[in-house]
Write a structure and sequence with these properties.
three-stranded antiparallel sheet; mainly beta; 145 residues
């Protein structure tokens, strides 16, 4: 048997927008990296977004790292635990994935800076470039004495 993980667009659950094939067991957990990353060279906009997300998919014994641009895993690790994998969480900086299993052990997958890609930084708009509405003078309130 071959299993897959499906990705859906928010508020559009009729058809998956992407299918990640080739898993030997069903997906148990999907954990999204809290950091957004720049698109690979040559991709300007993908699915209407100027960045890509990275996420981990856990099956019973395998950890697969995907992004929203590619259909194949960016990385894979298996055989780290004696028992089935139960959960995964990314560190806030997005450079480590902590994985737990039913045998009570934790594993940490560490990624060097730049190994998953460059962090996406939203372009800031200069405040001077935005037309500000003219401020109306404040009304004077009279005090009753």
């Amino acid at each position: 048997k071959e299993y897959a993980t499906c990705m859906f667009r928010r508020h559009s659950y009729e058809n998956p927008c992407k299918v990640f094939l080739g898993h030997d067991k069903p997906s148990r957990v999907v954990s999204a990296n809290p950091v957004l990353f720049t698109l690979p060279e040559g991709k300007e906009i993908h699915e209407g977004l100027p960045y890509r997300s990275i996420f981990a998919v856990l099956t019973e014994k395998t950890i697969l790292i995907y992004d929203t641009v590619h259909s194949r895993p960016l990385a894979m690790a298996r055989g780290l635990h004696f028992s089935g994998l139960t959960d995964a969480v990314w560190t806030p900086d997005g450079h480590a994935l902590i994985v737990s299993s039913s045998d009570g052990y934790l594993s940490m997958l560490l990624f060097d800076k730049g190994e998953l890609g460059n962090v996406y930084v939203k372009k800031k708009i200069k405040r001077d470039a935005i037309e500000q509405p003219e401020k109306q003078p404040a009304e004077k309130k009279s005090r009753i004495t």
